[in-house]
Every structure is written in structure tokens, then in C-alpha cells.
Amino acid sequence: MTASEATTPRQLTYVAAVGEAFAQLMREDQTVFICGEDVGLYGSVFGVTRGLLAEFGPDRVVDTPISESGIMGMGLGAAATGLRPIVDIMFMDFMGVCMDEVVNQVAKMKYMFGGKARLPLTIHTMAGAGTSMAAQHSQSLEAWFCHVPGLKVVMPSGPYEAKGLMVAAVRDDNPVLVINTKTLLGMRSEVPEALYEIPLGKANIVRPGTNFTIVAIGRMVGESLKAAEQLVDDGLDVEVIDPRTLQPFDTETVVASVRKTHRALIAHEAVRFGGIGAEFAAQIQEEAFDYLDAPVGRVGAPFSPVPFSPALEKEYVPNADRIVAEVRRILGNRV
Amino acid sequence: MTASEATTPRQLTYVAAVGEAFAQLMREDQTVFICGEDVGLYGSVFGVTRGLLAEFGPDRVVDTPISESGIMGMGLGAAATGLRPIVDIMFMDFMGVCMDEVVNQVAKMKYMFGGKARLPLTIHTMAGAGTSMAAQHSQSLEAWFCHVPGLKVVMPSGPYEAKGLMVAAVRDDNPVLVINTKTLLGMRSEVPEALYEIPLGKANIVRPGTNFTIVAIGRMVGESLKAAEQLVDDGLDVEVIDPRTLQPFDTETVVASVRKTHRALIAHEAVRFGGIGAEFAAQIQEEAFDYLDAPVGRVGAPFSPVPFSPALEKEYVPNADRIVAEVRRILGNRV
Amino acid sequence: MSLSRETLLDIHRRMVRIRVFEEEAGKLMESGKVPGALHLYVGEEAVAAGVMTHLRDQDQITSTHRGHGHLVAKGGDLKKMYAELFGRVTGYCKGKGGSMHISDLDLGMLGANGIVGAGPVIAIGAAFSNKFRKTDNVTVCFFGDGASNEGTFHEAANMAALYKLPLVFVCENNGFGEFTSQERHQAVHDIADRAAGYGMPGVIVDGMDAIAVYEAAGEAIARARRGLGPTLLECKTYRFFDHVGIRGMGVIYRDDSEVIEWRKRDPIGLLEAQLAEQGILSAEAATSVRDGALAEVQEAIVFAEASPFPPPEALMEDIYTTAGL
Amino acid sequence: MSLSRETLLDIHRRMVRIRVFEEEAGKLMESGKVPGALHLYVGEEAVAAGVMTHLRDQDQITSTHRGHGHLVAKGGDLKKMYAELFGRVTGYCKGKGGSMHISDLDLGMLGANGIVGAGPVIAIGAAFSNKFRKTDNVTVCFFGDGASNEGTFHEAANMAALYKLPLVFVCENNGFGEFTSQERHQAVHDIADRAAGYGMPGVIVDGMDAIAVYEAAGEAIARARRGLGPTLLECKTYRFFDHVGIRGMGVIYRDDSEVIEWRKRDPIGLLEAQLAEQGILSAEAATSVRDGALAEVQEAIVFAEASPFPPPEALMEDIYTTAGL
Ligand SMILES: Cc1ncc(C[n+]2csc(CCOP(=O)(O)OP(=O)(O)O)c2C)c(N)n1
Ligand SMILES: Cc1ncc(C[n+]2csc(CCOP(=O)(O)OP(=O)(O)O)c2C)c(N)n1
Ligand SMILES: [Mg+2]
Ligand SMILES: [Mg+2]
């Protein structure tokens, strides 16, 4: 489904799109509830749950103590016994505090029980740097979770994706980690009022192109579109692909594109070393080796914690210029 | 340094090599202590700390409650205030319980403090499947930690490496995660009695070869050597490289090998998707693109939790046959 | 509370079934027939039986790595249990979980768990669900003295009390966390003392006395069902065997004398004496209960050993829920 | 314990310096001059000052996201602090940490922390180290009422009591965890009640009364120095400003009336009244202390704003220790 199919030209911010998805999903299914720190009375520090408490009450919009393991366990226990919880972990950096629950319990329960568990659990969190919040409030750790069988992972790149992927995530009968990006919350785009799903596992070709493929996730999708414009002068007609779902990854769409364009680059905000871009690049060279005219490039954050000082953070966060430079570097004198 | 340089032909098991390293390091430096669950009176469930309590006493060999976050925090606080702790986390699967301490505190403290911290902390744990311990006692999660700036990660492939890398890790002034493999504990090899260091960040060419490179870690090093023998009939003279240190990764040695052999494969026990093999493969195709005659292959565990039943676990754990098959698959009709 | 004859015999039968199940399982593990590690419940039967006799199938429990006893007491199918220990496709988890993940969601048994301290936070979710769905089902969370030092217990206890969840925390204080005795892993003698810090009652009971456990658990469970919130029930018990396997004596971390003392208060012997006194269970009757359990267990073992291993393709099944379940 | 004139004035001066530091920092954040989010300590000064006045440079503290007050009270250099808030290379962390990671290892200040509940487990390590090195240094762990629900507090408390570590847990109970009031995040009114569950004394003190805090902290610290183990000291206090920034009234999660009530017991006003009564500090003297602090702070701000930002190459420095330090 692409934005053009939207039933109305209504524009919504990213944060409003997430909030609307929550509200509509809670109206649709009485077993859906949301729990997390300050998601109720305060409406979440990011505003994504504003208004939910008033409409659905404290039984379904649950403020919790600062106990991430407890919150995640509560979501798992409720999902295993018939409810459809949405668990909010304020910042993705805090996933480390409940990592065991996510990785050893949530992801594995179904398999360990021989399939006899249905876990319709959605985990919602906020990733990304660029807000002067320093090393413990700015990380993008999607690679960890994509490495864990039993989880699905989605990363919306805009308001339209934020709503459609949230709907698919909450309706899915498996644990799905929804990674939103805090620096995109103010972004506006067309968002249909009706409940719509963006299918999990299906990539979206954001910008069709013929001779270079950029696979970008989250905030880097927008940056890649800017980069694509800058690269026109280089004689490059860049195809930009947003996987939307990182796990399962839509290898097919990406490989088909690269077989057509013969050159590719992956862009994400996370640290480059060991980032999900490595997996994408490895798969591309495996599946499209004979079609590649250049190595698959990768753009990601340098190998350092996220610095506080704006002077350093602006050097840290990848952007369109960095993508353009990397594209030119890998093409070198091959163009 | 290679085994041949060892000062004595003495043979030691992997478990004894680790234990000897601990004892010698504690004799060498009075600020070294070890803490963890049942590392004292019981000598650890794997036997790696046997005898330490008797020699060094309870102040330096500390049995802890079952509180991984507390244990890891204790190691960090002690390291930040002048001691050189060795923290034992029984199974690598339990790292999830203290993930925040490792990733947000241990790895980032120095940077967040502008460099004003010295953290000589060694984290020791046991990874690997193949012991019918099921999904929560069998994981290999090295990829997570290699993605975290501020940590160093080593993964010994035998007794000689187990001792030499432990010595280097404990003497290093940075947090180093030492990942031992439980199924290798009984393995014997030549281990010098003297304290010797295997330099961190330096790969070891275990088997020189001319026309194919296998980069293998931990248990897969031995399996790759077996595979290399089987592949002789295919006309392949396989070079087997053990990076020994995963973070920092010795790109240079590996790339030099691939530029020579023109074909490569990565083998690890961890789940293939998002495993550290993806990073290695991505780097190889970036640095040696024009030298590659075939895509870089990867062998790892399938995308499932580790099953309990021996009937399934033997299908799960990668081995020499799987490596041979994958080498043949990627070469296809290119040979 | 005076217990009916039926209830007393029911408790006794559950205890004997656990004992026999565990003794046979232990032998099979030591002989290498059952793969992996088994954490056996022998010596602690009064806790599982005394608590579970109050529960319905809809009431949930979260278990531990030492979980066989809990499932047997909750009414688990011995055939499926043994098949699981043997890693066979007919097992509760199709052989994918084994001893440490044995479970039966239909019986509300939310799984043994390989992670110490994992249960409490899952239990608050099940309890929350019972309350959310306006049922009067309760959830019982079993955990050990060692697990009482994991942060997860703390978080779950606080949330359970805060939300007044229909939950009972049953601490099986057997004096050891693996090979570390309680006085070497915490500075308090009574784990029940922790209850006050969360705003819930803390109760201590003799975990070798099945009737005492039954009565104390009865009150806590009734309280939870009435919507009055959680209770922390500490049962003082003892593990007769080693942490893993069946060896109980001659171990480095405890004196044989201590084991001998505790064995004098074997929970089954204790209950049988009480029942004999009340003329409810004769020695012969007791023997026939044991014989019956043994026959059942032997039948289960035969079933398990005769069952096939899962086929290779099962490896990649049951990871995700596709259509429906 | 009767406090000397010097001590009383010392406490007062520390409180005023914190107050002025925070008020100015708050304005700079609201005006966008200081990037990121500042969690200000205004209203809670008596806690940091009352405790820190007992400490030596060698004694360590672990702080929280609300850490400026702790560092000022521990003797932090205001210039380096402001430079850090501004993200300048002259800051305590060369601009890499900012408000949430401000630290000074030379003063034993082991860092503000962006992770709620991170401090307690780091504190036991420092305390363990003090004991291991046979010093009589103590470690003080500051944490909030909200943090008292994190599992890390539980694990650290248990280990500190078990090992009898020279440690004092100072709970700054300001009634809120972010925007959630205490009665909505835990079922107990006194967090000190949790101490008994670990086997350590729990003490409650009026956190607005600097002298009371000083005296209670003095006993706990002396006890720790003597090797008698940890204490949990709960200080009942209040955050005058919002969770982040300076706005204190007209917020959705608390009534202005509550803020007004607490402000009547402003810890600085309270102490100045006590000191005036004892003829130790006149109104004029108090004003000059404040003026002095303000001058110091303004000087620090000028220094900070005049300082350069870190150069781009600094991004990849200080991640690992290479030769020596
Ligand atoms: C998080 C975690 N840490 C450590 C272990 C290893 N381990 C397994 S059982 C056990 C002891 C548990 O003690 P307790 O809670 O008292 O239960 P008991 O074995 O006595 O029944 C330990 C440390 C584990 N499985 N998980
Ligand atoms: C692990 C973690 N969870 C949540 C947060 C978000 N957060 C920052 S401060 C705070 C409230 C802390 O409350 P308290 O401990 O009482 O300290 P106070 O702010 O009242 O001083 C929260 C929830 C965090 N930083 N870390
Ligand atoms: Mg125990
Ligand atoms: Mg607070």
C-alpha cells in the first residue's frame, strides 16, 4: 500500500499518527491495553498516548512504576493469557533493562512451549540521536532484536508508516517491536483516517530508480531521498527502498532492485559496525553477486557512544551529505 | 604468537587453561578479584574457578547472590575505583539480565566522562549450544556486544587461546568481554605454563591456504579445519583464520587473505541472520570487491531458538559438513 | 480450617506422584537416558501439593527451573511430561523445551523457566489479565530463596501490591541458591520480611508440613480471589537431592548431618503419620498409593521411550504464529 | 549532636550555591542556550548539603539524572559544570556527557546517570572497593522514590547488607517519579520500610530540614565507616520545579496548592530561620552568601560560554583507554 491509496488527503504528524493508531486499535479490540511509564495521566513524554486515558480509562491505559522488567513481564503474561498488550518502553536505550524479558521470555516462549502459545504483544519504543540527550537516550539498537528468532521488528520512516505499521503490529499474533524515531515525531504527511495495515515483511520502493539502490530505514529514508536528488548530477537515478519491516526482511524486493541497478548502499542511524546494514549488505552480495558493479556501501554512525555536545552530535548522526559522499566513494572511478 | 612458540609441550584442557590464567593473574596483581555465582566454594559450575577460593580467600574470590545486575555493577564500581575485577556471568544467555549495566554503564562510562575513567574490567561468560540445555542456556550472542562502542570482545577457539586471551583481557585497561564455549571445555592442547598474552585485535592464521578463506570463531574454528581437509578433494587449499578478537576486528589480516584466495566464507555458531558474520562479510566485500570470484558465504545457526531435543539440536548446531556444503554451494559452477 | 478426608488424600496423592516422578526421572538422567540437566523437587512436595490443591485449571502458575513438581501437582499428564524430558514429539513442548521449559497452558501452567527470577514478572501479567477480564482466577508465582535476590522479584512484588493483583508469591525457601546457602546470599533469615516493603502481608509456614502449607495457601489464595491483593508466602523447605540430579549427600556445600536432619521431616512421611493417626490412611493404603503412582510413572516412561523424536523439519516450526494459532 | 557554627554555615552555603546554580541553569535551558534536558534540584538542597558535608574527597557518591546538586555539594567546580552543560570542551566531560552524565572522579563523584536505578549497583562496587583496599572511605548512593522500584535497587541493597559494605543509600523521596506520584507507583508510604527486608536499618528524615538530614546522615555514615554496614536513609523532600525545566505550577500531575504548601518549608528559608534564631546568620549575611554564589555562577557561565566546543576529532577520542590513561 502506498500513500497514494490513502482515502483522504488529510495530513497528520508522526506523533498524531501513532496516537490515532493506538486509539483506533483500542476501540476495535477490547483486549488491547497499553502500559508503560507515564502513558496515562501524562500522555507519554513524547505525547503518543495523549487522550487515551480519558477515553479508555485506567484499566486499559496503565501507568506503571519505573520497572521495565516488570512492565515487559506484565505484557508477556497478559499476552499469554488472552490479552493484546502494547508495552511502551520510553527510550530504546532502556531496552537493556528488560532485555531478558524480551529476548529469553517473549521471543522464545512459543517455541519452547512447542508452539502452544499465542503472543499478540506489541513493544513500542523510541530510538534515535540528534536531541542532545547524550549516550543513554539516543541509541538505535534494532540490530540486536533482528538477531533474535521469535521477534518481528518494524521501523517506520514517516507518519503514514507509523500508523500502518502500528496497526499491523498490534493485530499480529506475534511479538512485534515497533521502533519509532524521536526526531521524526514532528514530521507531517498524508495519513488516512481509516484503520489501515501496512503488511509486515514487505518493503516499499519510496523512489523508483534505475542505476543505484539505497536501502534506508527510519530517519535515513528521508535523508536518502535528499541524497538521491543531489546524486542526479552524478548521472545517478537512485532507487530508494524502505524495508519498513527489518525482521522479517524483504530480501526479494531489495535483491530485485540491485539486480536492476547493479550498485547499492545501506543507510541507518545506528552504529555502522554490526548494524543491520551489515546483514542487508551480506545478503545483497550473496544474492546478487554477479550483478554488482561495485561493493555494497554502508552508512551508519561511527563507532562511538552518542556524544552530548551539539558540536559532536552533528558529526555523529548520518545525513544526506554523508550518504552522497559514501555513494561517490564506493563508485570511485567506476562510474 | 602461535602454539609452536609455546615454551613447553605441556598439554592442558580448555577449562584448566582458563583456571590457570585466573590464578596466575591473581598472583600477579593484588587488585584482581573475581566475583560471580558459585565461583568460590563450588569453583563455578563449569569448574573454571576451582581452587581459587582456597588460594586467594573470600575477599578476592567472591560468591554472589543471584543478582546479575548487582554483580555487573559491582564490577564496574570496583573498576572505576582502582580494582581490576573479573566478573563471571555463568551462561551468556544471562547477559540479558544485566544488559543495561554492560551496554549503558560499563561500555559508555569512559566516554561520557570525557575519558576520565579507567575501567580494567573483564566479563567472563560461557556460550554455545550442543548440551541439551535448550533455548535459555545455549545462545551465542557476541554480535550484540560487537555493536557496542566501548567494549572489546574476544572468543577463544581452544585452550591456548583461552589462556592467552584471558591474560590480555584482564591486563587490558578497558572492559573486555571474554566469551568461552562450553562444548570446548574438555578440549586439550599445548598451553605454556608461563603467563603469556595473545594480543587483542590480532587474527591468527590457523591453517595457511591459497585459494579459499574461511573466517571462523570459537567452536567453528575446529570445524573449519575439518572442513578444510574434506575440501582438499575439491581442489581447494583452504586458509582458516581465527580472528580471536571480534571487537576490534582484524580486518587487515582477513582482507589480505581474501585478496589472495579470492573466495571466502564466515562460520560461527550464532544465529546466521544478524550474526557477526554479516559484518565480516560486509567488510570483505567492501575491501576486496575486485578480488572476489564468488559471494562471501556465511554459516551460522538457523533462525530459531535453540531446541532441547537432541534430534533437533544436532540439526541446529553448525558443523564441518555444513561448512563444506556451503562452500560448495557458493562456489557452484564457479570452480 | 479442618480438612476433609478427600482433601487430605488428594494432597497426599499429589505428593507421592511428584516423589515417584522425580525419583524415576533422576535415575534416567543419571543413567544418561534423559538428556540435559534435571532439577528435582524431592523434599519440597508439600509446597506444590499444598498450594495446588486449591487451584482450578483456569488459575495460572509460574514455575521455575525446578518445575516438574509444580506441573504434576497442577494435574499434568505424566506421559506428556516424560515424553518432554526425553525430547520426544509427543511431549508437552514437542521436545523443544525439555525439563526447564515444561509447560501446559491449558492447565494454566505458564512454564518452568531457565532464567532464575523470570517467573514473578510473568505472573503479574497473568494476574493483571485475570483482573482485566473480570474473572476471579488467581495466579501463583513459585520462586526460590535464590530468586528472591533478583530484581525481577522486587519489581513484580511492588506492581502486584500497587495494582492489588490476584496473585500469591510462594517462596520455596530450600536454603540454597544452587550451591550457596541462604546466609551466604542474603542477610535476612525470613524472606517473608520483604513483604512489608511492598505493602503486602508476609506469611511463614513450615514447608515440610503439607497441611500447614494447605491452610496458609488457602488464606492467601482466598484473599487474592476476593480482590484484596497479593500475599508473600514463604515455605521453609529443603532440597533432598543435589541442585541437579539425585546425589544428596557428600557434597561440598552442605553437611550430610543437615540433610539427615531434614530427611527426618520428610514431608510425605510427615503427612502419612498424620493421616495414619487420624485413621485416614493405613500403611497398606499408603503403599498402594505409591505403587499406583509408580505404575503410572512406569507407563509414562514406556510411552515416552516408545515415542518418536521430532522430525528435522520441526526445527523451524512453532517460532511464529501464522494463521490463527 | 550540636553542630558547630562553621558546619552550619558550610551546609547553608552549599545549599545556596546549588539553588543559584540550578535557577540560572534552568533559565539558560528554557531560553535554549543550554541544549538538552535539565533535571533541576531546587527544593531538595537540604539532602545533598546535609549528606555531603560529612564526606571527604575520597568518599564516593553515585548520583542520578538530577545530579547537579550532588556535584555542587561535593565541591564541584562550577566553571567545569557549566561548561559541561553548554557542551564545551572545558567541561567536566569535555562536553561529551552533559547534564545527565556530569561527573568528577577526583571528587569521588561517579556520575549523574541517564538510567534510573543505575546508581545503586555501581555504588556497591565502589563500596566493595573501599573495603577491599582496607580504607575507611564510604560510598553514598542517591536515588529517587521512582528508582526505588527498579530491580537494581533491590539487588544492590541485598548485596550491600550481605557484605556489610560501607555504604549509605540515600533515597530522595520527592513524591514523584517523573509525573507519577508516589501513591501511584508503590503501595507503601515509607520507602525506608524496605530496609528491614535486606537486614539493614531504615531511617526516615525530614528532607527539608538540613540539620535533621545532617544528623541522620552523620549516624549512617559513621556506622558505615566503622564497618557496621549499610543504612537506608529516606529523606522526605519535594521538587519545586517540573521534572525537566523550571516550571513548577500549573502542571497536570499535581495541584499548585501542594507546591505552595511545600514551598512554605523551603529548605533554605527553613535553615536561614534556624540560623537567624541562633544568631549565626543575619539576613544581610544570608543575602551576601547568595550574592556571592550568584557572582560565582555568573562567572562560571561567562567562562562556559566563552569556551570552545570540542573539535570534530574529539568525537572518536576517549572511547578506549590506550597507553596508561
Ligand atoms: C538469571 C539466572 N542466573 C543464574 C542461573 C543459574 N541457576 C540456575 S538455578 C540457580 C539457583 C536458584 O536458586 P533458587 O531460586 O533458590 O531455586 P532452587 O534451585 O533452590 O529451587 C541458579 C543460580 C539462571 N538459570 N538464571
Ligand atoms: C531505566 C529508565 N527508565 C525510565 C527513565 C525515564 N526517567 C527519567 S527520570 C525518571 C523519574 C525518576 O524518578 P525518581 O527516581 O523519583 O527521581 P526524581 O526525578 O524524582 O528525582 C524517569 C522515569 C530512565 N531515564 N531510565
Ligand atoms: Mg533455593
Ligand atoms: Mg522522585
Q: How are the SSEs ordered, and which strands pair?
A:
The complex is a heterotetramer, with 2 copies of chain A (about 325 residues) and 2 copies of chain C (about 325 residues).
Chain A: E1 11-13, H1 14-28, E2 32-36, H2 52-56, E3 61-63, H3 68-80, E4 84-89, H4 99-106, H5 109-112, E5 122-127, H6 142-146, E6 152-154, H7 159-171, E7 176-181, E8 188-190, E9 204-207, E10 212-216, H8 219-231, E11 238-242, E12 245-247, H9 251-261, E13 264-271, H10 276-287, E14 297-301, H11 310-316, H12 320-331
Parallel strand pairs in A: 2-3, 2-4, 4-5, 5-7, 6-7, 10-11, 10-13, 13-14
Antiparallel strand pairs in A: 1-8, 6-12, 9-11
Chain C: H1 5-30, H2 45-52, E1 60-62, H3 68-73, H4 78-85, H5 118-132, E2 139-144, H6 151-162, E3 167-173, E4 176-177, E5 180-181, E6 202-206, H7 210-225, E7 231-236, H8 256-263, H9 267-277, H10 283-306
Parallel strand pairs in C: 1-2, 2-3, 3-7, 6-7
Antiparallel strand pairs in C: 4-5
Helix pairs in contact in C: 1-2, 1-9, 1-10, 2-7, 4-10, 5-6
One thiamine diphosphate sits at the interface of chains D and A.
Description of the molecule:
The complex is a heterotetramer, with 2 copies of chain A (335 residues) and 2 copies of chain C (325 residues). With 335 residues, chain A is α/β, with parallel strands linked by helices. Chain A is built from 12 helices and 14 strands. In chain A, helix 10 links the parallel strand 13 and strand 14. Chain A is globular and about 60 Å long. The model of chain A has no long low-confidence stretch (mean pLDDT 96). Chain C has 325 residues and is of the alpha/beta class. Chain C is globular. Chain C has 10 helices and 7 strands. The mean pLDDT of chain C is 97. In chain C, helix 1 crosses helix 10, helix 4 packs across helix 10 and helix 5 runs parallel beside helix 6. The longest helix of chain C is centred in the first third of the chain and has 26 residues. In chain C, 41% of the residues lie in helices and 10% in strands. In chain C, the strands form 2 sheets. Chain C has a 5-stranded parallel β-sheet, with helices on both faces. Chain C has a two-stranded antiparallel ribbon with strand order 4-5. The chains are: A alpha/beta (335), C alpha/beta (325). Chains in contact: A-B, A-C, A-D, B-C, B-D, C-D. One thiamine diphosphate sits at the interface of chains C and B.
